[in-house]
Amino acid sequence: MLAIGFAVAYALILLFARFFAHVIIFPAPAPTYAAGSENVFFKLEDGTDIAGLYLPAENSKYCVIYSHGNGEDLGMIEPILRTFQATGVSVLGYDYVGYGLSKGKPSEKKLYEAADAAWKYATEVLKFDENDIVLFGYSLGSAPATHLAARHPNARALIISGGVAKGVYAILPWNIVPWDILNNVSRIEKTKAPILFLHGTRDRIVPPRNARMNFAAAKSPARLVWLDDTGHLELSESDGYWTEILNFIKTPTDEKSTGNIVR
Predict the structure, then answer these.
(1) Of the four, 50, 188, 191, 203, which is 20 to 30 A from 255 by CA?
(2) If we measure between CA atoms, which residue out of 203, 205, 167 comes closest to residue 183?
(3) Is 168 helix (H, G, I), strand (E, B) or coil?
(4) How many C-beta atoms surround the C-beta of residue 225 within 10 A?
(5) CA-CA distance, 190 to 161, in Å (whole number)?
(6) pTM for the whole thing?
(7) Which helix (H) or strand (E) holds 146?
(8) CATH number, domain containing residue 241
(9) Host domain of residue 6
(10) How many domains in the chain?
């Protein structure tokens, strides 16, 4: 009877994950911004409009394609994007399907389609060379960022901040779901570009095990930086965070290493 009870409970968990996981993973907020002169728009192959924010930096050779976290949109991450611009790096942020001013219903598939559209805009409209594009993913954004990195081996670098290894590992220390949800590990294994991982040691939203798994999966040169006593929402405010990022953009690592930033 106990075995039957466990089997039923497991089946119910799987049913919940199959039909409701997208609601938990993609809690798109109401738009926090209105379209302005710096906003750009591009389309998915099915014609869905995707909103972006392009902030060019004067004489910048590099462009960061920034993939944001869940529960965020361009209005909320604008200060982060302007930090890139202020430090001399052009940046293209974009909203996922159903987020901000982007149309449609969010899903994992549409997440990657929006990333592909952002890449196409950066290379075909903004005319950045693939070798000068840095892929940046924060939290949920680690998935579209690794998606692009696996598809475009000539990208300059991949930077993952507070990223997941697989969707289930953000919640549990083991995988109980027999299908992939936000499987970054498999894409990191295929990535040719140098990778920088940044993760807080006190992250309770995406536990540190995710960074360890991602770093272990990397076949390309990679650097894992632990931000001591830092939580998931505090990463960009941590001492040394921006220094690590800007140094990596200028000179990506050619070896595998770890480091710590002590607050």
Answers:
(1) 203
(2) 167
(3) helix
(4) 21
(5) 19
(6) 0.88
(7) helix 142-151
(8) 3.40.50.1820
(9) 2-261
(10) 1
